[in-house]
Amino acid sequence: MSEFMEPNADSVAATPRWVGLAIAVLGGISLIGVGLGFAAWNTSKSLEQSTQASLKQNDALTQRLAKSEEQNQQLQSDLKVVTDKLNVTQEDLQKARQQSKASVAAYDSPERPTPRMSINWVPMSVASKTTLTRPSLSSNARRATWVS
Predict the structure, then answer these.
(1) More confident residue, 141 or 54
(2) What distance in Å separates the CA atoms of residue 140 and residue 117, rounded to the nearest whole number?
(3) Residue 139 falls within a domain, yes or no?
């Protein structure tokens, strides 16, 4: 029995130093991996949110485009009906536009004299310097005189 009780010195061996260092390095690398994974998860969440917002905006723009196309189609049909009723051709419309441009150009040309309003002011004459009473208009409506 004593054989079984004796400690066996040959079976106990110390672990080498590099094993502890390797565990520490692997633990540091795993912490870095967890940090990078968390950052990637946050980035994917924000990307998903911005994608959802873009999809909502895209849907709104698609609806606006459909509404605008419908209004455009209605206006085109209204214009066709009016054009048919008036029997106006594209040539007539072009001639009218050219005439309008020509009249605007003629109106804005520097050769045309500018109309000026002229008012002839006549100084008022005073009959008596000491007593002034009511003004009365003479035969010329622009000339006002004071009478005493």
Answers:
(1) 54
(2) 18
(3) no
Give me the phi and psi of 100, to 5 degrees please.
-65, -45
DSSP lists the bridge partners of residue 137 as 144
CA dist 33 and 56 (Å) reads: 35
92-105 confidence digits (pLDDT tens): 888 989 999 888 88
- pLDDT band of residue 128 (cuts 50, 70, 90) is very low
CA dihedral for 17, 18, 20, 21, sign (positive or negative): positive
Does residue 148 contact residue 128 with C-beta atoms inside 8 Å? yes
Residue 84's pLDDT band, with cuts at 50, 70 and 90, is confident
Per the domain annotation, does 36 fall within a domain?
Answer: yes
Please count the structural domains in the chain.
1
| 104 within some domain | no
Domain assignment of residue 84, given as a range: 17-89
Who's near 112: CB < 8 A, 6+ residues apart? 106
